[in-house]
Design brief:
Layout: E1 14-17, H1 33-38, H2 40-46, E2 50-53, E3 57-58, E4 70-74, H3 81-93, E5 97-102, H4 112-119, E6 131-133, E7 143-144, E8 152-154, E9 160-163, H5 178-194, E10 198-201, E11 225-226, H6 228-233, H7 237-252, E12 255-258, H8 268-272, E13 280-281, H9 304-319, E14 325-326, H10 336-340, H11 348-359, E15 364-368, H12 389-400, H13 405-415, H14 418-421, H15 452-456, H16 462-474, H17 479-484, E16 486-489, E17 497-503, E18 508-514, E19 520-523, E20 530-534, E21 548-550, E22 553-556, E23 561-565
Helix pairs in contact: 5-7, 11-16, 12-13
Length: 566
C-alpha cells in the first residue's frame, strides 16, 4: 500500500472499557463514569490515545446495554450526561479521544419506537421494525437467532411476528425505511457534535435482510438454521453503509471501527479501503478458528500452525488495502491468555509474548481492560454464577446435544463472555478494589496475585512491560515503521515460532516469539543494531536482560519474545 493518505488515527493505540466492570465509585456494585474519569491518568500512563466505551445508554440490560431503550440518554447505573461531558473534557485535556458503541441493527423492546409499534401493529412505527405474518401457522421462516431459538417472536393479539436476530428483547430495526434511517443519522450526528471522536459499530452487517425471508436447510435438531446464513446470502448492505458514512462520519472525520462478520471475499476494500465505509474493522480471523460449529461445546483447542497461518494471511491481505484493528480479547470473547496460550505458557512471560506479537502487527492495536495485567478466564463453579444471556443459551444447547450438566459447564466456561466481564482487578483488597459493595458479577479468584497495585510495584510485571511495549510502538524513532511499515513473515518453517519483520526503506525490525515448550535457535538475517524489547527477566543484581545472540544466532527460551532492530 503506497502513497496512503495519512489519517489522525493511524498511529494510535486504543483501549476498550466495559463500564459495568471497570471501577465502581458509589458502592452499588456497578462500574460508573466517575470510575472511568478517575483512571484517565492510569490509561494515559499506559500510552492510550483512544478509549472505546461499551454501551452506556439507557437500557434494561437484557444483553448488557446492547439493548438500547434511549439513544440520547445515559443509563443511571453509569451516571449522568453531565458526567459524560466531564469525561469528554478530561480526556481531551490529556489528548485522548472517546468513542462509543453504535448499536443500530436493533434496539430494546422498551424503546419508545417499539412500544408504539406494539400499540399499533399496522401503523407507522411497525415499519421501523420487521413485522411479518406467519406462514402456515408458523413463524415466517426457520432461522435461529444468535442467542438460540427462532428469530421470530409473536406480536401479541395479532397473527404477526417481529424479527430479532439476537434476544427477543432486541427487535431488529428496518433499514429499508428511510424515515428510520434519518432518525438514526440525526442521533449519530448529535453525539459527534457533542465531541465524540467516533464509534465502534456493532453487528452492522446484519442490517441487510433478505425481505423474502426464505427457509434454509436446517443445521440442527431444532429444525432451524443459523441466521447468519441469511446474512451470507444477501447482497446490498454497502448501499446502507455508504449512506451512513456520507450522512454522518465523513462530516466529522470520525474514527470508526466495524464489528464485521460475514463480509464477502471481494469486499475488504469497500469496507476499509481509502474511501471505505469504516476507518478500520476488527480482525476476527483467529477468533473464528475456535468458535465451534454447532455451539461452544464443540469449540476445538487452538492449533498453533493454523493460528500463525491465519494471522499472516490476514496481515498480507489487509496490507494492500488499509488497516484492521488487532485484538486478543474483547467483551464478547474469553480472555486471550486462556484462549491463545497453551497451559504451560499462561505465565507472565507468555502473556508478554502474546501481547508483543499482537501489538506490533500492522494495524490499530486494541487493548481490552485488564489485558495489560494479564487477567485470565475465571473458574466457574455453577451455571448460577453466569450473568451472560449467550452463555446460558449455549449451556442449554450443550445439554440438548447430550452433554451432562457438568460437561456443559466445563465446555461453556471456557468460552463464556463473562470471562472478560469479571471486574477489573485493581488491588488485593476486598472485591479486587472494584467496589465497596456487592459486585454485579463475581470477581476472578486470582485477584490476590493478579492486580494493578501489585504490578505497579514490580518492575518486571506484565503492566510495566505493556507500558514499554506501547511506548516503543509510539516512539519517535520507531513510530513510522510500526505504523506504516510492511509486514513480512519469517521463519514460517520453524515449529512454534511466530516471527515477522516490520520494515520501511530505512528500517527493519524483527518481532520473534517462541510459543514452544523448549528453547530454539534461529539464524538471524543481518546484524542486530539494537535490542528494542525483550521479556527476559534480569538476573538478580543485573540492570536488564537481553536475548542471547552469539555469532549471529538467536536463542529463544520457551515463551520468550524479542524485538530487534536488524
Amino acid at each position: 500500500m503506497t502513497n496512503i493518505n495519512r489519517c489522525w488515527w493511524h498511529d494510535k493505540v486504543a483501549y476498550q472499557i466495559y463500564p459495568k466492570s471497570f471501577l465502581d465509585t458509589n458502592g452499588d456494585g456497578i462500574g460508573d463514569l466517575r470510575g472511568i474519569i478517575s483512571k484517565l491518568d492510569y490509561l494515559k500512563a499506559l500510552g492510550i490515545d483512544i478509549i472505546w466505551l461499551s454501551p452506556i445508554y439507557k437500557s434494561p440490560f437484557v444483553d448488557q446495554g446492547y439493548d438500547i431503550a434511549d439513544y440520547y440518554a445515559i443509563a443511571e447505573e453509569f451516571g449522568t450526561m453531565d458526567e459524560f461531558d466531564e469525561l469528554l473534557r478530561e480526556a481531551k485535556k490529556r489528548d485522548m479521544a472517546i468513542i462509543m458503541d453504535l448499536v443500530i441493527n436493533h434496539c430494546s423492546d422498551k424503546h419508545e419506537w417499539f412500544q408504539k409499534a406494539l400499540a399499533d401493529p399496522d401503523g407507522e412505527y411497525a415499519d421501523y421494525f420487521y413485522f411479518r405474518k406467519g406462514k402456515d401457522g408458523k413463524a415466517p421462516n426457520n432461522l435461529r437467532s444468535y442467542f438460540g431459538g427462532s428469530i421470530w417472536e409473536p406480536v401479541p393479539g395479532t397473527d404477526k411476528y417481529y424479527l430479532h436476530m439476537f434476544a427477543k428483547e432486541q427487535p431488529d430495526l428496518n433499514w429499508e425505511n428511510p424515515v428510520l434511517r434519518r432518525k438514526l443519522f440525526d442521533m449519530v450526528n448529535w453525539w459527534l457534535e457533542k465531541g465524540l471522536a467516533g464509534f465502534r459499530i456493532d453487528a452492522i452487517i446484519n442490517i441487510k435482510k433478505d425481505l423474502a425471508f426464505p427457509n434454509f436447510e436446517p443445521d440442527g435438531p431444532d429444525g432451524l438454521a443459523w441466521c447468519w446464513k441469511m446474512v451470507d446470502s444477501v447482497d446490498g448492505v454497502g448501499t446502507f453503509l455508504k449512506e451512513l458514512k456520507d450522512e454522518t462520519f465523513r462530516k466529522y472525520d470520525a474514527f470508526t471501527v466495524g464489528e464485521v462478520f460475514n463480509m464477502k471475499e471481494d469486499e475488504l476494500n469497500a469496507f476499509i479501503g481509502e474511501d471505505g465505509y469504516f476507518s478500520t474493522m476488527f480482525d476476527f480471523s483467529a477468533h473464528l478458528l475456535i468458535g465451534g460449529g454447532h455451539g461452544w461445546y464443540e469449540a476445538p483447542e487452538l492449533d498453533f500452525d493454523a493460528w500463525r497461518s491465519t494471522v499472516i494471511a490476514s496481515q498480507l491481505e489487509t496490507e494492500a488495502v488499509g488497516f484492521k484493528a488487532n485484538i486478543i480479547e474483547n467483551h464478547d470473547e474469553p480472555r486471550g491468555t486462556s484462549r491463545y496460550l497453551p497451559p504451560f505458557a499462561r505465565t507472565p512471560a507468555g502473556i508478554k509474548m502474546l501481547g508483543t506479537v499482537s501489538l506490533l502487527l500492522r494495524g490499530i492495536p486494541f487493548i481490552f481492560q485488564g489485558q495489560e495485567i494479564g487477567m485470565t478466564n475465571a473458574v466457574w463453579n455453577s451455571v448460577d454464577e453466569f450473568n451472560d444471556i449467550n452463555t446460558k443459551d449455549q449451556i442449554k444447547m450443550a445439554r440438548e446435544a447430550g452433554l451432562s450438566e457438568a460437561e456443559a459447564l466445563v465446555a461453556c466456561s471456557r468460552m463464556s463472555r463473562d470471562n472478560a466481564r469479571t471486574p477489573v482487578q485493581w488491588s488485593d483488597e476486598v472485591n479486587a478494589g472494584f467496589t465497596t459493595g456487592t459486585p454485579w458479577l463475581k470477581v476472578n479468584d486470582n485477584y490476590k496475585t493478579v492486580n494493578v497495585a501489585a504490578q505497579e510495584k514490580e518492575p518486571d510485571s506484565v503492566l510495566h512491560f505493556y507500558r514499554r511495549l506501547v511506548a516503543l510502538r509510539k516512539s519517535e524513532a520507531y513510530r513510522e515503521v510500526f505504523t506504516y511499515g510492511r509486514f513480512e513473515p519469517v521463519y514460517t518453517d520453524k515449529d512454534n515460532i511466530m516471527a515477522y519483520y516490520r520494515r520501511t526503506e530505512e528500517q527493519r525490525v524483527l518481532v520473534v516469539a517462541n510459543f514452544g515448550k523448549t528453547a530454539t535457535e534461529l539464524e538471524l538475517e543481518g546484524d542486530v543494531k539494537r535490542v528494542l524489547l525483550s521479556n527476559r527477566v534480569a538476573e538478580e543484581g543485573a540492570n536488564s536482560a537481553s536475548p542471547v545472540i552469539i555469532d549471529g544466532r538467536l536463542t529463544l527460551e520457551s515463551c520468550e519474545v524479542a524485538v530487534l532492530d536488524i
